[in-house]
């Protein structure tokens, strides 16, 4: 499976203490230069920077569709615009992104999207994240904003119940 990641999932998974779920799920993750700059360069010393820089299974690739990056950059951040453009270029690619506007734009372009909580839930079901509630709690304690309704729905799903 081809995977492109935006900055959010890299940062949030590091905060949760489960950065390695990316490698376990996908073996290789592609990030555009804007995401690398946001997480590793400007984010130096912050959650996700060291993990992303050290991960040899994360590779950088520049999007070729510069016009799409420019168009998306009118209302999205540089990293988001590049990640969406890169995923759009690669048929059958999953885009890891949490931000609502970016998710909606990607979905309109026919790109499959997954978010941090979905990745944690998937690995929880596989046994790699034994305490999902604790992982989400660590994310929140370290500064990741996640709505209470979404947390409740994910935890309910982890127990096999509807979140509503």
List the helices and strands and how they pair.
Blueprint: E1 2-5, H1 7-16, H2 21-26, E2 29-31, H3 33-41, H4 49-54, E3 58-60, H5 66-72, H6 78-89, E4 93-96, H7 100-108, E5 112-114, H8 116-125, H9 132-141, H10 148-158
Helix pairs in contact: 1-9, 3-6, 5-6, 8-10
Description:
- The structure is a single chain.
- This protein has helices at residues 7-16, 21-26, 33-41, 49-54, 66-72, 78-89, 100-108, 116-125, 132-141, 148-158, and strands at 2-5, 29-31, 58-60, 93-96, 112-114.
- It is mainly alpha-helical and 164 residues long.
- The chain has a single domain (2-117), classed as 5'-nuclease (Rossmann fold, 3-Layer(aba) Sandwich), CATH 3.40.50.
- The mean pLDDT is 93.
Shape category: globular
Major sheet strand order:
1-4-5
- N to C succession of SSEs: EHHEHHEHHEHEHHH
- In CATH's first tier, which class applies? Alpha Beta
Q: Tell me about the largest β-sheet.
A: 3 strands, parallel
Poorly predicted regions: none
């Amino acid at each position: 499976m081809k995977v492109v990641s935006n900055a959010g999932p890299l940062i949030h998974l590091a905060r949760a203490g489960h950065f390695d779920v990316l490698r376990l799920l996908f073996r290789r993750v592609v990030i555009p230069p804007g995401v690398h700059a946001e997480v590793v360069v400007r984010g130096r010393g912050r959650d996700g920077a060291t993990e992303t820089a050290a991960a040899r299974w994360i590779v950088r690739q520049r999007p070729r569709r510069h016009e799409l990056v420019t168009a998306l950059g009118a209302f999205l951040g540089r990293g988001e615009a590049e990640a969406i453009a890169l995923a759009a270029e690669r048929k059958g690619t999953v885009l890891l992104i949490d931000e609502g506007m970016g998710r909606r734009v990607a979905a309109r372009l026919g790109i499959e999207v997954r978010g941090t909580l979905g990745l944690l839930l998937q690995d929880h079901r596989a046994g790699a994240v034994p305490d999902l509630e604790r992982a989400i709690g660590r994310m929140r304690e370290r500064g990741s904003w996640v709505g209470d309704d979404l947390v409740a729905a994910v935890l309910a799903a982890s127990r096999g119940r509807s979140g509503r």
